[in-house]
Amino acid sequence: MTHSGRETVKCPACSNEMTQALVKDIALDVCEDGCGGIWFDWFELNRVDEPHEGLGADLLHVPIDESLKVDHDAKRNCPRCDSMPLMKHFASVKREFQVDECPRCAGFFLDYGELNRIRDQYDTEEERSEAAQAMFSDMFDEGLDDMASESEEKLEKAKRLAHMFRFLLPSYYIPGKQKWGAF
User: Which of 10, 33, 74, 158 supports an S-S bond with 144, CB 3.0-4.6 Å?
Assistant: First the structure.
């Protein structure tokens, strides 16, 4: 990792001062010698979330303090947005683990090892999109189509439901090509 000159931030998981690092051309905040978490600003995670996207071993094996215990259920605040609570949601439609996302700046905080787990889930963005498309279609296409065709009030309910699921999962996991994706 090459260190940059950006302002440092506190780790949302353990309050350790995060190290500023430049990996390829992405400036990241890494909790080195703390909990090992990584902060990704808006859309940075998309650039390293697939196995073929090289980033070297630096981010996959951040040095951690083995004696540090992190409460993964504790409320966390965004290190960029003053007092903004991070939202927990599943990292993908596989629902294997949760990540933290800021609803204001769309940054992500990944606990130690979560980047590896994300990279292991799908080989490409196309695979991720196909899995999301299949799950959302199975769950909602017919019901939302029915609601949309019944009345304006039901159409508004369908829109709110579609927006709720966009809010619960990272936007890049939802392809938006469903019949209800245009809401």
Answer: 158
